[in-house]
Design brief:
There is one protein chain. The chain is mainly alpha-helical. The protein is built from eleven helices and five strands. It has helices spanning about 40-45, 50-65, 70-80, 85-95, 195-205, 205-210, 215-230, 235-245, 255-265, 275-280, 310-319; strands at about 100-105, 110-115, 170, 290, 300. The strands form two sheets. A three-stranded antiparallel beta sheet has the order 2-1-3. A hairpin with a 5-residue loop joins strand 1 (about 100-105) and strand 2. Helix 2 (about 50-65) crosses helix 4 (about 85-95) and helix 7 (about 215-230) runs parallel beside helix 9 (about 255-265).
């Protein structure tokens, strides 16, 4: 009766937690890093409010040594993302506490950008100051006889000197977008339909000379009065075209804004009249221009148009 039963199969070893291969999902094959690694918390790697670009950028910044430059242009040269996407990712990290940027004025007057990266937002605080512990009171034994003198009280240890406050750097707010509106677009004295048509045709033809200057119909209608002002001031079409298409930036992101700026800032002054040129050629001599009489159409010299002397006399006589 005491013979053991060997027909039942032996029980297999119980699985060790973490060693079982999942039937679906990701499978991790991990090796321990001995050097050249960065510790990233799951609160960042699995953040639900950050984009993938922001999470990757935060991991890259935390892997850099102290003092490394992380400007937007430098990051755009390092990664395939555009400057706009990188700037948006940096703003995400600032909003969630992983990054803080400020403008600091140095002692020599230069203003630099100071960037602070936090590997765990909310955990970085002020350095703790050690609180001096109170000296332990010496145990007093009961007097053996009334003739014993009382033991003097222990002298407390002197407190450490309070730290002197360090002068805080002068913080300058980070640059923001321009709040002042751009200068108004020039307007002609009289925008005739013919002048409007010629100005619109010149703007639409700019893409033949510079493929970057592709404008929409709305942009052409908006910029046409400014080009009409150039025509009103006797500017040649080739002169206008050269001023608007020379030395274009690359890449050109906003062609309409660039053309608005050039039309406004490069606008030439009105051409001087023929009488003004004669006065400049003969300094010291004031030349009174010729006018045509409104009554008899006879030429006479006057600073202002109107009637000649004879017609003025007839008018006074008739009155």
């Amino acid at each position: 009766m005491d013979t053991p039963q060997i027909t039942a199969p032996s029980r297999g070893p119980s699985p060790v937690p973490g060693d079982a291969t999942p039937s679906s999902g990701v499978i991790h094959i991990n090796f321990r890093h001995a050097a050249g690694f960065t510790v990233i918390g799951n609160h960042l790697a699995q953040h639900r409010g950050l984009s993938l670009a922001a999470i990757g950028l935060a991991a890259h910044i935390q892997s850099l040594p102290a003092g490394a430059r992380i400007g937007i242009k430098r990051l755009a040269e390092r990664f395939p993302e555009s400057e706009t996407r990188i700037a948006a990712a940096l703003r995400e990290l600032e909003a969630h506490g992983y990054l803080h940027r400020s403008r600091v004025r140095l002692a020599d007057g230069r203003i630099v950008t100071r960037t602070v990266s936090y590997n765990q937002p909310g955990a970085a605080g002020r350095p703790r100051t050690a609180t001096p512990s109170r000296p332990n009171a010496q145990p007093t034994s009961p007097p053996r006889a009334t003739t014993l003198e009382p033991r003097p009280a222990p002298t407390p240890a002197p407190l450490p000197p309070a730290p002197q406050p360090q002068p805080s750097p002068v913080l300058v707010p980070a640059p923001t977008a321009r709040t002042t509106p751009p200068p108004p677009l020039p307007q002609p004295q009289e925008l005739t339909p013919e002048l409007q048509r010629v100005a619109a045709a010149l703007l639409a033809d700019l893409r033949r000379h510079a493929p970057q200057l592709v404008l929409s119909e709305h942009d052409i209608r908006t910029l046409a009065p400014g080009v009409a002002t150039w025509f009103e001031r006797d500017a040649h079409p080739d002169t206008i075209r050269h001023a608007l298409t020379t030395d274009l930036p690359s890449p050109l992101k906003h062609p309409a804004k660039l053309l608005r700026h050039r039309i406004t800032t490069l606008l030439p002054p009105p051409l001087p009249g023929a009488q003004d040129v004669v006065a400049l050629a003969r300094p010291g001599v004031i030349v009174i221009p010729l006018q045509n009489c409104d009554g008899c159409d006879r030429a006479f010299r006057s600073r202002h148009p109107g009637h000649c002397r004879d017609c003025l006399t007839d008018l006074h006589t008739a009155a």
